[in-house]
Amino acid sequence: MSELELEDRERFEQLVLPHVDAAFNLARWLLRGRADAEDVAQEALLRACRFFRGFQGGDARAWLLQIVRNTCYTWLEKNRPMELSMEFDEEIHLQTSATPETLAISGDDRERLILALETLPPRFREVLVLRELEGCSYKEIAAITSLPIGTVMSSLSRARRQLYSALANSTQKGAVREV
Amino acid sequence: MKCDFADSLLQGYFDGELSGRRAAEFERHLQHCAHCASELVDLDWLSGALRLTQLYVPAPASLRRKIDAYVHPKAPTAAPSQPLLWHWLAAAAALLVIAIVLWRVSPELRSDDYQAELAGEIVDAHLRSLQPGHMTGIASNDERVIKGWFDAKVKFALPIRDFAGAGFVLNGGRVDVVEGRSVAVLVYEHNGHPINVFMWATQEPDTSPRTGSRQGFQWVDWRKDKMEFCAVSDAVPADLEQLHQLIHSSV
């Protein structure tokens, strides 16, 4: 049942619903799976609907993504707390957790890139997704993640470096395997 | 062979986030810094790879349908029958009874629901803040520094006070999101327990403190002078009550 008044509903449709793709994409990359992303994005959108009266205008995409991000982190905290605690371990992503499935297809460039991105710690992954896939400005990323702009910039820098080296690494490995 | 310019300016330059003056400064540097030039090539390669791979995952139709159904609740589409007048009258009377009952009961219900939902949101935000790097946007115990930082970010005046003398050390502040709106958070520490005090402007009348606990965290919520406050922590309730008193009398 919708809790929105008619005129709020129209505003919600105009301002927020165009960003459903952005909401799902961010959830997909933060949670690393479509099924969980669909559940959590749905929960986030229902929250957005419920809290829409608190939206004071401005950037609706950033407002929605902020709620999506928070809902994702709360979900991770409850369901996969280990993933959040690996944030500061710089090395771990290089050895982790390729599933048999991802290993089998890692010869393919696209899959290699997905794997590299998914093995970044969430805090780095989210800034990269927001910047490179969603095209957000630093200011928007800072608003969405509640991080200071300086931290956004340094996270982005570290995320890119990690992704680059993971990719360069696996490219070499891939080349060896293909030979 | 790291370059001092590398991190902040290089990213900012690559993403087009530098001011004209800073960009020009960086370009001059770029002419004779092989390190930055090659980093820039790597960044470009990476960005191109990400774009070409088309990693954006749009929402599935099933999600859109669910959201749509929520935003546009439809009346059930049962086959229309031929109702007699007294059927309608009976239905109307029943609805009236239900409406009266709901009208009498719901303000309290709704207020309890609201309180539970708010407490849930606040505790979730508190949990998120405990992750490394998420506690403070400004780490300082200087009331004026924190005030200056908040001035640009929130539209309401905040009572920012360090109560270190009473054992509640002000560690800084941040902006967080509760129920979809930006709220200011002051971060205190008491005997090693972090305490988040959420504050936002409200139109509601003043209230005396309401307390509760959730997932092992205590919270106390009150309103004064068009501001709502909610303090949450794993500290014992008496400590939260003491902090509530300190803040309440400083407003």
Question: Would you write up a description of this structure?
Answer:
The complex is a heterodimer of chains A (179) and B (251). By secondary structure, chain A is mainly α. Chain A folds into two domains: 1-79, Orthogonal Bundle (Rna Polymerase Sigma Factor, Chain: A), CATH 1.10.1740.10; 88-179, Orthogonal Bundle (Arc Repressor Mutant, subunit A). Helices cover 74% and strands 0% of the residues of chain A. Chain A contains eleven helices and no strands. The radius of gyration of chain A is 18 Å and the shape is globular. Helices cover 47% and strands 22% of the residues of chain B. Chain B folds into two domains: 1-72; 113-250, MucB/RseB, C-terminal domain (Phosphorylase Kinase, domain 1). Chain B has a seven-stranded antiparallel beta sheet, with helices on both faces. In chain B, strand 2 (169-178) and strand 3 (181-190) form a beta hairpin. Chain B is an alpha+beta fold. Chain B contains seven helices and seven strands. The chains are: A mainly alpha (179), B alpha+beta (251). Chains A and B meet through helix 1, helix 2, helix 3, helix 4 and helix 8 of A and helix 1, helix 3, helix 4, helix 5 and strand 2 of B.
